[in-house]
Design a protein that fits this description.
Layout (H helix, E strand, L loop, with lengths): L2 E3 L7 E5 L3 E2 L6 E2 L4 E5 L6 E3 L4 E2 L15 E4 L2 E2 L4 E2 L5 E11 L2 E4 L3 E6 L5 E7 L7 H13 L3 E7 L14 H8 L6 E4 L3 E2 L7 H4 L8 E10 L2 E10 L8 E8 L2 E5 L18 E6 L2 E5 L6 E2 L9 E8 L9 E8 L5 E8 L3 E2 L3
């Protein structure tokens, strides 16, 4: 029999999802038609220990031929169309099937089996009018240099007659929920005060530790319509009261920043001006795709994906290439348990 090696087939995992959208101001759930995000892969990029890992093959005629295939993981055939690993590691999979009397071997795809690591949420309540706020910006720069296991959100507010062009319309709801009274205010995992001088160790000591749940993010932009899909998986099933929070943030926003450290020679902002001209504001909270305090995660069995999606029309004044998605799972007291972030258009797997 003739064996044919295909250089690349259209291989993808299709997840059918019910799209829910929240208006930023009112947080009113909408229910558009069912939508899907397709990933040109034979297998998802990462899974948890003992989680079922499905394989799927769609041929060049757009036909699902998964049931006709034999799958090989690390060169060994497996029973059925999925795989489970009791240990972490890196794996490779390919499929072999018959088409018109010809044996087709797909391209090989890599995937991982992991123990989830905790990404710590750090939130910065700030304003362009706030002269002491640069100190938190500086602390976040230092934190970014030391670890990638963080998810940062900068929440801006206009103060009286001092407008902030990045003002988040629901900031008061967040301030009330977390007891924020004065700016700057920095919070770790939403509910713990990151006190001055904001030492990195307060965050790095708990960042990257093993945890029992993971998040993945995928998104697609069509015109100005952004479709965001978030997947959540628990090792031991969802916890009653847990919620999913999903935000849209933007980097690289240039705006002057009031600076009370201009005459402080111990500060990194010494003699940078007051205000600092053309200050770069990053991770700015632009929109809440979920309810601003999160949407309840329904009861979900262990190692089973909970999939939620959102759509939003991206305003014309947002810079597309600077936008990212932030997703976090919080408990009933709004303390963040784990988080994930991804630039729009990226497929960020479980980590």
């Amino acid at each position: 029999m003739i064996s044919k090696k295909m250089p690349k087939l259209l291989l993808f995992l299709i997840v059918l999802i019910t799209v829910a959208c929240s208006k930023t101001e009112e947080n009113v759930p909408l229910t558009p038609p069912t939508a899907e995000i397709t990933v040109d892969k034979l297998v998802r990029k990462a899974s948890l220990i003992n989680q079922n890992i499905p394989f799927k093959i769609i041929n060049e005629q757009d036909e699902d031929v998964t049931s006709l295939a034999t799958f090989y993981v690390n060169g060994q055939p497996v029973d059925g169309t999925s795989y489970v690993s009791p240990t972490i590691g890196e794996f490779e999979v390919y499929g072999v099937y018959m088409q018109d009397g010809v044996e087709i071997t797909t391209n090989t795809e890599s995937f991982s089996v992991i123990i989830p690591k905790r990404k710590i949420v750090v939130e910065d309540y700030t304003g362009t009018w706030c002269g002491f706020c640069p100190r938190v910006s500086g602390a976040l720069e230092s934190l970014h240099e030391e670890t990638d296991d963080i998810t940062v959100v900068a929440i801006h507010e206009t103060a009286n007659s001092f407008p902030d062009p990045m003002h988040f319309s629901q900031v008061q709801l967040l301030k009330d929920a977390f007891g924020v009274e004065g700016f700057p205010a920095a919070r770790i995992n939403r509910s713990v005060n990151w006190q001055t001088p904001h030492p990195n160790s307060d965050v790095t000591s708990i960042a990257g530790l093993d945890t029992n749940l993971a998040l993945a993010i995928n998104s697609e932009l069509t015109g100005n319509e952004l479709l965001v899909q978030v997947n959540v998986v628990y090792e031991e099933g969802s916890v009653q009261g847990d919620k999913l929070v999903v935000y849209l943030v933007e980097d690289g926003i240039i705006n002057d920043q009031v600076n009370y450290y201009n005459d402080d020679n111990t500060s990194q902002f010494y003699q940078m001006g007051d205000p600092i001209p053309d200050f770069e504001h990053n991770e700015v909270l632009r929109n809440s795709l979920s309810g601003v305090l999160g949407d309840v995660i329904p009861s979900t069995p262990s190692l089973t994906e909970y999939v939620r999606s959102f759509t939003i029309n991206v305003p014309s004044n947002y810079v597309i290439e600077n936008l990212s998605i932030v997703a976090m799972v919080v408990d009933e007291n709004n303390t963040a348990k784990n988080s994930q972030y991804a630039h729009i258009g990226d497929d960020k797997s479980y980590e």
